[in-house]
Design brief:
By secondary structure, this protein is mainly alpha-helical. The protein has 21 helices and 13 strands.
Length: 698
């Protein structure tokens, strides 16, 4: 990789970051301070470590990374306003699209970002042992952080691109001839790093989050949990079966000894009052975002050094650029249009003709036609988010959640099937004159039950899994008439999907000139279409109202990267491969997720489809689904069976993402290397090719 010398200031530290092969920047050191001097201070070393952690902000909590890690799978479709449609349809080239925000996979930016993060880790591994002002225990803790993060960044890269250049030392000279290292070797290096991380954490007695080197940083069981995940990936993708036992051992140890535990109420896993790493009992490692979103750049990914000299990553990654402090944008990715959608429920506003309004600072009320008073709605509506229509659940996923509805808390904790209003606004929507004649739930009672307000009030928009043309669907429509908008999964007046078959179902497009139910034009707007009006995945919504940031463009929610439930799923999959009792392990998790008094266990034979269903229920939206389908060699079969948006284009080449074209154009050893893929999609080669080559088919 080409050398990038940069001043990554964190505290008083000077950091060095390697980025793209295609760009070179050497900043003028106006302070005269050298790395040797800066990194012989406590603040310098801690700042270097903080710089290494900051690169996590570019992936976890951001829009394009969700596209790369969750979408184009079996669980989600892209919505009307999605910004990565070509990639999600598997109609993508290796071209870098720079600052384009209309349709951009951001692969070149993530290539650069991860290598920059790796180089900061490599500098930490060099300078921490040389620092004379910190003791051996502190050195061990910082080294553990650096090994953990280097492993984390490389684990993302190898899962995306397969064989990649591997840097284990700081970049000190321009390298125009990078070599792609075989996947098995990269995985072995990652696992070796995690062993060193665990050794150093144990030496420093950093065995809990409270003992970590800083807020939101890793500790011993973070490294062991990542070890379990990476070992499972290597075992399942590459067929290196010896790693199943290692994954099993690591996951079991985390379960038994980390101190992590489940909440009795699943919604508490996602309650923002429990978000901090030292508070959430299930969390093993989370990307930390500061709760102050007003100024500064503490939550931003560091500047980049390409892109025409702009110094900034695409706004799809930063969301608001570098003018604010940054934060997570995940709360914006899953809601549908609720506040400015089809006019059947009234305009988006604060008048007595409106029932919804996007809450903003100083504007958190709607006038009631019933009382003539301004009704405070901030804490009820702010959690719904903006409604940008980026991603919606697939019919397959909605049906999967529905199948556990009666026994499993994860249905209510995952899926938002209605947008609701206070009783005082029930006379505002002229098209639904009987809105006040339904049952309204006291908001505070709803909060006591769920830890949030999502089930409070009464229905304004309801999404039903039923076939609207079925007798049951017709009965529900008769009950809903004049009370609220009702959209069925398929069939009926204004369905979300075109079909009841998960293989062919697509989000509907366009409005309806004349409603079958009402005989009027209330649904004529195209905003009623399934691409823009659908049930929402709610685990990332800002469920706790903060008057400083109502319906904000950014969130301070921490994004959990590793948590206890995944360890049960890893253990079960490893047991499936090694002859253990996978069913018992799955049922342990399902018992923890059971509705009180309900039997949530399953029976029968466990296979990989059983595992994938459980992972879908538990880990949906958590930056893993695409990787799960890839590593289990089920990506093509699941997309063809459950994602009609992508099924027509997906091919074996899509088990790998393309190497960004600007990276290939910058090297001097670019080669046309013929590397085949086996029936499972895995690249076949016997040795490392000397040239820098593109993945097959791109």
């Amino acid at each position: 990789m080409k050398k990038i010398l940069s001043m990554l200031f964190a505290a008083t530290a000077i950091g060095f970051g390697a980025t793209s092969c295609s760009d070179f920047l050497e900043e003028d050191n106006k302070t005269g301070e050298t790395a040797d001097l800066a990194y012989n201070t406590i603040s310098g070393i801690d700042g270097l470590i903080q710089s290494a952690y900051t690169y996590t902000h570019g992936w976890w909590g951001k829009e394009p990374s969700l596209g790369l890690s969750e979408m184009g799978s079996d669980l989600f479709y892209f919505g009307y306003d999605n910004k990565q449609k070509s990639m999600l349809k598997y109609d993508i080239s290796a071209e870098a699209l720079g600052s384009n925000v209309a349709d951009n996979p951001c692969l070149d930016e993530y290539w650069e970002m991860f290598y920059a993060g790796v180089d900061v880790c490599n500098n930490a591994l060099k300078y921490v042992p040389e620092c004379s002002v910190i003791d051996d225990n502190k050195k061990a803790a910082y080294l553990a952080d650096a090994y953990f993060l280097r492993a984390l960044y490389y684990s993302q890269m190898v899962a995306l691109w397969g064989p990649i250049p591997y840097n284990s030392e700081p970049v000190n000279s321009i390298n125009n001839t990078p070599v792609r290292v075989p996947e098995a070797e990269v995985y072995a290096n990652i696992l070796a790093d995690l062993k060193l991380s665990m050794e150093n954490y144990k030496k420093a007695n950093v065995m809990t989050a409270k003992a970590a080197t800083g807020t939101g940083r890793a500790y011993y069981y973070s490294a062991e949990a990542l070890y379990a995940r990476v070992a499972l990936y290597a075992a399942s993708w590459l067929g290196q079966s010896q790693y199943y036992n290692e994954a099993l051992t690591a996951a079991t140890d985390v379960i038994n000894n980390s101190g992590a535990k489940f909440y009795s109420r699943y919604s508490d896993t996602w309650n923002m009052n429990n978000e901090e790493a030292t508070v959430n009992t299930e969390n093993l490692f989370a990307v930390h975002y500061s709760n102050d979103l007003s100024a500064g750049r503490d939550n931003c990914v560091p500047y980049r050094y390409s892109g025409g000299g702009t110094g900034q990553y695409n706004s799809l990654i930063t969301r608001t650029g570098y003018g604010r402090q940054g934060g997570s944008a995940t709360h914006l990715m899953f809601p549908s249009l609720w506040n400015n959608g089809c006019d059947d429920i009234g305009p988006n506003g604060q008048t007595d003709k409106s029932i919804f309004f996007r809450m903003a600072a100083g504007k958190t009320t709607i006038k009631s036609k019933m009382t003539g008073e301004n009704i405070e709605c901030g804490k009820y509506y702010s959690p719904y988010g903006r409604g940008f229509t980026r991603y919606l659940p697939s019919l397959y996923f909605w049906q999967l959640l529905e199948s556990v509805k009666e026994t499993d808390q994860r249905y209510n904790g995952t899926l938002l099937t209605s947008y609701r209003i206070p009783y005082e606004l029930s006379q505002n929507a002229a098209n639904y004159p009987k809105m006040g004649e339904q049952e309204f739930k006291d908001y505070e009672e709803a909060y006591k039950e769920d830890g949030n307000y999502f089930n409070g009030g009464g229905i304004a928009i309801l999404y039903s899994i039923l076939d609207g043309d079925s007798e049951e669907g017709k009965a529900l429509q008769a009950e809903a008439k004049d009370k609220y908008r009702l959209q069925f999964a398929y069939g009926g007046d204004i369905p979300v999907y075109t079909s009841g078959d998960p293989k062919t179902a697509l989000p509907t497009e366009g409005g309806k000139a004349v409603s079958d139910v009402y005989g009027d034009a209330r649904y004529k707007s195209e905003k009623i279409e399934g691409r823009r009006s659908y049930p929402c995945i709610k685990k990332y919504l800002d469920d706790q109202y903060n008057a400083n940031y109502p319906t904000h463009d950014l969130s301070y929610r921490d994004i959990m990267v590793l948590r206890l439930a995944e360890m049960y799923l890893i253990k079960a999959e490893a047991e499936l491969a090694t002859g253990g009792n996978a069913l018992a392990t799955i049922n342990e998790l399902r018992k923890a997720r059971a509705i009180s008094g309900k039997d949530n266990t399953i029976s029968g034979t466990v296979d990989i489809e059983t595992i994938l269903k459980e992972r879908a229920l538990e880990l949906c939206g958590e930056y893993q689904r695409w990787f799960d389908l890839k590593r289990t060699h089920t990506l093509i079969s699941h997309v063809k069976a459950y994602n009609a948006q992508a099924s027509g284009n997906i091919d074996v080449k899509h088990y790998y993402r393309p190497i960004p074209l600007n990276e290939l154009e910058a090297v001097t050893n670019r080669a046309s290397v013929s590397v085949a893929q086996d029936a499972n999609g895995v690249l076949q080669y016997t040795s490392t090719a000397e040239g820098m080559w593109q993945n097959p088919g791109y």
